[in-house]
């Protein structure tokens, strides 16, 4: 089969105005970025409409390092709805340069289920990530400048919690010393960088309802403490107006199309292992307002992205999905059954059977939210009918729908069975219930998620985490939902534990207060908010050809 890049070169783009016409978006709301991309004005949400599309959430079982094709399945499913002449629009996250140039590669789908233009979306797109990076680092610069210029606010450099960000994997920047070089170079202090996808500015933009809501979130962002341990917020630096100016265009969602012309809003890109893992509330609402079916996804496995989708995004935005798709693969279940990740293409019924425990847990987790999943088996060429039969039989035991898909090779036609199963599942839809109430303690919230989603026996808090909890209590923020940062390759906080780990504790290393975003980031195990590049990064295979084609960005 041709590579993703070769397939992308076969693509004949429809003018973006034609894609807007599919959704009946008025011309005055369209802000073209060339022929294939447009931003859509926030005024488009103010247009009165009786339409409220049904919302479909796509999640997955615990993935292998290269992922199980959740985004590809989302796109294939969207194209299948188009093939069935249904009104549909997707709402996806924007890719980060870190993974694109690091380990996982691009994040625009694959094969004949891609969003286009894939090279532009995977790289700079419309500059949203750069705007978020700039706004975040403007605040960082203002903090250090304020300290240098006399420190009227009495900021304690040792108690700053705001960090710089960049959209690149660079482990050497995790912990650094700033302000070296003498009197004119600033005040020396410890600092560091997170990746842009983990920036609180990213989370705020993705959870904001509109411009005024985003401004309020920026104003209440905690940046640190004074020498007498009083909290300091971004508003006190009088810099949030300029941050809003930098974010003006980034707040408007981007509209593109799939390989088969299905509309897709691609907006915001928080990671699910270190952030809340969902695209913007604004883009999701636009997809629902302008189509009968809105399909969105949540990052990594159900235990990470989907839990946060329900407990954070749905709670804040008052959303409730009508259907849940749980993507899995034969190769992932083999890995969870004990097979080495370098040997997942040979038939191994025993490994698949053992790995089904991971699927069991995720099905149970979906049902904890009062939802009934449709299991989508993303078929690879190396899969055998016998292996797939084992998975289907387990789904029958659970009483959940099952659909085999070949959308990578066949586009929308390869996901028709999945689309029909999803539409049929709508009749079983019931209102979701969160895992925890907001008025319980932070410790109990972490314990409930860890036990329900991960299967942990209990939770242990480090001395630093206990100290952080006291800050949360002193600031009166115990009512906030939690965003657990955890290893994506395991249900536990140990990335080496595959399958369905049992009899383990989750260790909380620290808690970060994201007062602007409106949640508490609970860091577990050895999770890092700035990834590093692998020994041989994907960037080594990327090159610009004389024809202007970018090769190797898969």
Structure explained in plain terms:
The protein has about 550 residues and is an alpha/beta fold. It is about 35% helix and about 20% strand. The chain is built from 18 helices and 24 strands. Strands 1, 2, 3, 4, 5, 6, 13, 14, 15, 16, 17 and 18 form a twelve-stranded mixed sheet that branches. Strand 17 (about 375-380), helix 14 and strand 18 (about 400-405) form a beta-alpha-beta unit. Helix 12 (about 330-335) crosses helix 13 (about 350-370) and helix 13 runs parallel beside helix 14. The mean pLDDT is about 95.
Shape: globular
Assign a percent range to the helix content: 25-40%
- Report the CATH C-level class of the largest domain: Alpha Beta
Mean pLDDT: 95
Structural class: alpha/beta
Q: How many distinct beta strands?
A: 24
Radius of gyration: 23 Å
């Amino acid at each position: 089969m041709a590579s993703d890049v070769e397939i992308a070169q076969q693509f004949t783009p429809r003018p973006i105005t034609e894609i807007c016409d599919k959704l009946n978006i008025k011309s005055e709301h369209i802000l073209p970025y060339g022929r294939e991309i447009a931003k859509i004005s926030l005024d488009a949400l103010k247009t009165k409409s009786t339409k409220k599309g049904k919302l479909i959430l796509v999640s997955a079982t615990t993935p292998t390092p290269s992922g199980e094709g959740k985004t590809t399945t989302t796109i294939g499913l969207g194209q299948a709805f188009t093939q069935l002449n249904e009104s549909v629009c997707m709402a996806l996250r924007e890719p980060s340069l870190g993974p694109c140039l690091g380990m996982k590669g691009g994040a625009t789908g694959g094969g004949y289920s891609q969003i286009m233009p894939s090279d532009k979306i995977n790289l700079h797109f419309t500059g949203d990530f750069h705007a978020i990076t700039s706004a975040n680092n403007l605040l960082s610069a203002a903090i250090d400048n304020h300290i240098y210029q006399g420190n009227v606010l009495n900021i304690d450099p040792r108690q700053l919690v705001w960090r710089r960000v960049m959209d690149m994997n660079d482990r050497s920047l995790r912990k650094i010393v700033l302000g070296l070089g003498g009197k004119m170079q600033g005040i020396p202090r410890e600092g560091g960088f997170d990746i842009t996808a983990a920036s609180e500015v990213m989370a705020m933009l993705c959870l904001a309802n509109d411009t005024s809501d985003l401004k309020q979130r920026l104003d209440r962002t905690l940046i640190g403490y004074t020498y007498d341990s009083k909290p300091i917020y971004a508003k006190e630096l009088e810099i949030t107006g300029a941050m809003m100016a930098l974010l003006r265009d980034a707040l408007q969602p981007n509209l593109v199309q799939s390989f088969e012309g299905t509309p897709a809003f691609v907006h915001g890109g928080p990671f699910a292992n270190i952030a809340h893992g969902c695209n913007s509330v604004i883009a999701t609402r636009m997809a629902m307002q302008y189509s009968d079916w809105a399909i969105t996804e949540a990052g990594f496995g159900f235990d990470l992205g989907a839990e946060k989708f329900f407990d954070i995004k749905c709670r804040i935005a008052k959303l409730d999905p009508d259907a849940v798709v749980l993507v899995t693969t034969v190769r992932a279940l083999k890995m969870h059954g004990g097979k080495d990740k370098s040997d997942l293409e040979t038939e191994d019924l025993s490994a698949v059977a053992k790995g089904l425990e991971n699927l069991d847990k995720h099905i149970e987790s979906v049902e904890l939210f009062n939802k009934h999943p449709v299991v989508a088996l993303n078929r690879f060429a190396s899969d055998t009918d016998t292996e797939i039969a084992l998975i289907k039989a387990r789904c029958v035991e659970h009483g959940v729908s099952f659909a085999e898909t070949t959308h990578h090779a066949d586009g929308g036609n390869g996901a028709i069975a999945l689309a029909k199963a999803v539409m049929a599942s709508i009749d079983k839809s019931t209102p979701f219930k969160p895992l925890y109430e907001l008025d319980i303690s932070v410790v109990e919230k972490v314990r409930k998620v860890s036990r329900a989603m991960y299967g942990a026996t209990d939770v242990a808090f480090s001395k630093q985490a206990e100290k952080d909890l006291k800050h949360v209590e002193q600031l009166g923020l115990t009512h906030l939902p939690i965003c657990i940062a955890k290893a994506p390759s395991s249900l536990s906080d140990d990335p080496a534990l595959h399958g369905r780990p049992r009899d383990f504790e989750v260790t909380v290393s620290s808690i970060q207060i994201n007062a602007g975003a409106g949640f508490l980031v609970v860091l577990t195990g050895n999770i890092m908010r700035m990834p590093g590049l692998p020994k041989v990064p994907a960037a080594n295979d990327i090159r610009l050809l004389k024809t202007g084609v970018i090769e190797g960005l898969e």
